[in-house]
Amino acid sequence: MPADLDPRLLRAFVAVAEELHFTRAAARLYVAQQALSRDVRRLERELGAELFLRSTRQVTLTADGERLLPYARRVLAAQDELLAARTSFGRARPLLVDLNSPGLVTGRRVLHRARELAPDCELMARYESGLTGAAEQILSGRLDVSFGRFAGLDPALRSGLERQPVRYEPMAVILPEAHRLAALPEVPVASLAGETVYAGAGNPRTLEWTDLASRLFEGYGIRLAPPLPLAVGDEEFERIMGKTRYPVLAVVDFPALPRTVRRPLVDPVPLSPVSLVWRRGLVHPGLDALRRAAAEPAEREGWLRLPVEAWIPLEDIFPLPGKIR
Q: Where is the signal peptide (predicted)?
């Protein structure tokens, strides 16, 4: 038995033990399957024990693997907590907060209020455009916190994250000024039948948003616009959308684009479920401030109240909010 075990080997073991499938475990850890298998074999050599029974059809834990699993989980949880609580000379490191897009109101309001609640913390804004992309950054340690549709993430991503419901954000459509529906103060969803609407299809960073749009469009005869060149920055996004003239699915607080109008969607009122999302085990005073800041408008302004005529997938309905101290 070695004096020390590399936590990477334990992480590989736990992933395979929970997935009981080497390919899925490798995808969860973002490593090649060959590298994952090599780490598991090395751990078995160092422990002098066989941890898995492997066949062409299945993978199962041995008795030694079953005994190791709870210890490995505790070691990795302690390591994650230690990494999340890194400080320098008693001062918390800057917390990197993804706001998706500079013009979105929900995340910006929460961040502004958190800075008031924790003036000694450095909360740094980032813009990663989509929770799927941001979640991968969070799990790799390059971001700390983001906002978005948690239920739309792959389960492998969700397993390493925690979330707090923030808001049911009403959805809207951005229309060219000359569009047939532009004169309406509100746009019934059914009136978009036959339209092709852009909702980020083909953008790997916004898969959760495109999935929500597909669910909303189903049954209304609304087509999802095909993938477009990935536009980085507001100017490029405006240029691409100006060329295609597609209506754009958005939220009611989405910043206006030149030569367009933004109209809320009604009959029903579709909702975008926004959560505050962070890496599991993260401990930071800035996160505490963000959680308090997110809870205030939920209670005061009804951000977590479902409208009577709402549309939202069942898996996106938040549990009843608890108190954030």
A: none
HEC sequence for 158-178? HCCEEEEEEEEEEEEEEEECC
pLDDT in tens, 140-184: 888 999 999 999 999 988 989 999 999 999 999 999 888 999 999
- What's the CATH architecture for 170-270? 3-Layer(aba) Sandwich (3.40)
Tell me the H-state helices in the chain.
Answer: 7-19, 22-29, 33-47, 63-84, 105-117, 131-139, 155-158, 207-217, 234-244, 285-300
Interacting residues of 313 by C-beta distance below 8 A, sequence separation 6+: 151, 212, 215
Residues in the chain: 325
pTM for this predicted structure? 0.70
Place of tokens 């066989």: 50
Return the residue matching tokens 């005529």: 309
Q: Candidates 3.40.190.10, 1.10.10.350, 3.40.50.300, 3.30.110.40; correct CATH number of 90-168+272-307?
A: 3.40.190.10
What residues does 251 pair with on adjacent strands?
Answer: 171
Q: What's the burial of 324, exposed, middle or buried (CB within 10 Å: 0-12/13-18/19+)? A: middle
